[in-house]
Specification:
five-stranded mixed β-sheet, 5 strands, elongated, about 35% strand, alpha+beta, about 120 residues, 2 helices
């Protein structure tokens, strides 16, 4: 299986709706760092899974443009775990829409330097 990985960043705010008392229930922001891994059993006619430029365009249009400098609560339940799965779905939809024979395998979403949520197929 072949795989490639890229990273991107975005800034966003959110507050968590929790069943317990936490400072995270108040609106606050993060500088997110996200790593995306896609994979394929085969390479295309250019010897690639997907051109990194194309993958970065998918990420820009389907993820960054929708999340960067936003209040994430206006979009979805804004836990890092939920967001990592949402990003995974967006990448797969973008790959499919372009007819690229690859799948997103893993999304690693760093909310802070020490805290990361991972969605893996």
């Amino acid at each position: 299986m072949y795989s490639i990985r890229t990273e991107f960043t975005f800034e966003a705010a959110h507050s968590l709706k929790l069943s317990y008392t936490s400072p995270c229930s108040r609106i606050h922001g993060h500088s997110y760092i996200c790593g995306v891994t896609i994979e394929s059993a085969e390479l295309d006619e250019n010897g690639m899974i997907c051109d990194f430029k194309v993958l970065k365009q998918i990420i820009a249009e389907r993820v960054e443009d929708r999340l960067d400098h936003r209040n994430l609560n206006d979009i979805f339940d804004a836990t890092a775990e939920y967001m990592s799965r949402w990003i995974y779905d967006q990448i797969n939809e973008g790959l499919n829409s372009l007819g690229i024979d690859a799948r997103c395998k893993r999304v690693e979403l760093n909310e802070t330097a020490k805290n990361k949520a991972i969605w893996e197929e």
